Amino acid sequence: ATQTADMVALAATDAVADYDFGVIPLFVLMGFLVMISGVGKDSYLLAHHMFRRIPGGLGQATVVGNAIFSAITGVSVAAVVLFTKLAVPEMIERGYSKRFAVGVVAGSAMLGMLIPPSVLMIVYAVLTEVSIGDLFIAGIIPGILLSAAFCGTIWFMAWRNPSQFGAAMPHDDQGPSWREIANQAIPVTLLILVVLGGMYMGVFTATEGGAVGAAAALVVAWWRKALDWRTFWKLLIDTGYVTASLILIVSAANMFSRFLAISGVPSALSNWIGEMHLGVWAVMFVYVLVLLFLGTALDSASTVLISVPLFAPLFKDLGADLVWIGIITMIATEIGLITPPLGMAPFVLKSTLTDKSITLNDIYSGAFPFALAAMVTLGLVIAFPKLATGLL
Asked: Residue 114 to residues 71, 94, 146, 197, 227: CA-CA distances in angstroms?
């Protein structure tokens, strides 16, 4: 019993003692500062201006705004809350169907865990001991591809049934002035260039990028006069709460991996796969099915925590690139975020809505086309690994 307790304590300590995991509180704080400064709203307004004359344009703006917001924060639930408040009332007022309005918000929330920086990628990196920076880089092309798939889905739906998608803005509508556009674009562009640009150009590591991003977000919040000492203290406390919960997940993931290793389950599975002469593709098929199944009932972190320690050693033995497997894991897990019976995004969206006439069934039905688009994207990333690893 004493040895077991010592092992558990050692696993928990080792899991959180790594310097690289200092990125967790930094990106969490950055996300809170971005929310309080209104940068998330700016990303939506910018996208709205870009697509305002296109049928289904508000849906396209929601996807693009979500992609921009994800490139700054990387938290799907935060994106659901923000865009439920911003985009859903706007779309309904402009004549969009309620089912589509909530569906596009729930669907585009998947981008939060795929487009870097991503908290779920950090959890995966803990479990597999791959580079957080490599995962962030690998998420760029699939993130753009998934965003394009969502925009294409909206365009097709609007083309097939334009009466459900409002109307394009009249051509005499001038939209916001250049000064207003600059005021919205500069903070968003600054944060993306500083954080992601610095990491991808090798100026600093992912952990240092979190510190730089948090500092830049603090400057933006101060510049916009959205922050006082009382608000800043509250954000620090909230960051501590979120970080504590994530650290518990990281510690539990490390413990679970060690217990699995001691139990011999991965070795037994590896031997069984060797005897059955199964290849990467057969194991991949089973793995994706497991992720999709677990995603219907569990949150994203729990799905990754249960499945990755079991399958990652198998993929490693089969010679698969664990960074490629990581991107597949992100997409498949996030599909579970919007699938019944217990996909988390629809429940968060439902609790945030002011229009209580919209049911959970409406949200799941509205999100279904986006789940299909994500499945197609998942298939492409599986079939063409270079989509994930081409930038490494």
From this structure: 9, 30, 9, 17, 29
Query: What residues pair up with 96 in beta bridges, in sequence order?
Result: 165
Residues 347-362 pLDDT 10s: 878 877 877 788 888 8
DSSP for 9-31 reads HHHHHHHHHSGGGGHHHHHHHHH
The 10s digit of each residue's pLDDT in 144-174 is 999 999 999 998 988 888 877 765 555 445 5
pTM exceeds 0.90 for this model:
no
Q: Is 16 exposed, middle or buried (0-12, 13-18, 19+ CB in 10 A)?
A: middle
Q: Which of 84-93, 96-105, 136-145 has the lowest mean pLDDT?
A: 84-93
Where is 40: in which H helix or E strand?
A: helix 39-51
Sign, Cα dihedral of 292, 293, 299, 300: negative
Could you tell me how many residues make up the chain? 392
> Within 10 Å of residue 311's Cβ, how many Cβ atoms?
21
- Distance, in Å, from the CA atom of 312 to the CA atom of 322, rounded to the nearest integer, reads 7
Q: Could you tell me how many helices (H) and strands (E) the chain has, helices first?
A: 21, 0
Distance of CA 80 to the CA centre of its chain: 11
